[in-house]
């Protein structure tokens, strides 16, 4: 199993707009082999930003990497730069492979 996460520093006051962008997006994830689940997480509020994390679960790192090269990925990210003003910098990617798990 592989977990892919992007951390977003969203400017304070733009949280509702950020959530709306994600709620109205075309993700295309359900079309992709190996996709398991998606969650959008809202984290702590700092002085200048609120932390959000997009979290996807994949059957394997290979499945995730195949998605990043797919038409579904290109379609899902076609308008990624349209709301740059709500972010404090680009998202920070983190990928994790499961090394231990309990039910």
Description of the molecule:
The chain has helices at 15-23, 61-68, 71-76, and strands at residues 2-11, 35-45, 49-58, 92-97. It has 103 residues and is α+β, with helices and mostly antiparallel strands. The chain has a single domain, classed as Alpha-Beta Plaits, CATH 3.30.70. The protein has a four-stranded antiparallel beta sheet with strand order 2-3-1-4. A hairpin with a 3-residue loop joins β2 (35-45) and β3 (49-58). The radius of gyration is 14 Å and the shape is globular. The mean pLDDT is 93.
Give structural attributes.
103 residues; alpha+beta; Alpha-Beta Plaits; four-stranded antiparallel β-sheet; 22% helix; globular; Dimeric_a/b-barrel; ABM_dom; monooxygenase; monooxygenase activity; oxidoreductase
């Amino acid at each position: 199993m592989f977990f892919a996460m992007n951390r977003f520093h969203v400017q304070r006051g733009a949280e509702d707009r950020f959530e709306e962008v994600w709620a109205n997006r075309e993700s295309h994830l359900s079309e992709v082999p190996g996709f398991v689940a998606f969650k959008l997480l809202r984290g702590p509020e700092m002085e200048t930003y609120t932390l959000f994390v997009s979290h996807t679960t994949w059957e394997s790192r290979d499945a995730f990497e195949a998605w990043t090269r797919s038409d579904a990925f290109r379609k899902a990210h076609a308008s990624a730069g349209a709301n740059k003003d709500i972010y404090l910098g680009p998202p920070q990617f983190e990928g994790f492979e499961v090394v231990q798990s309990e039910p």
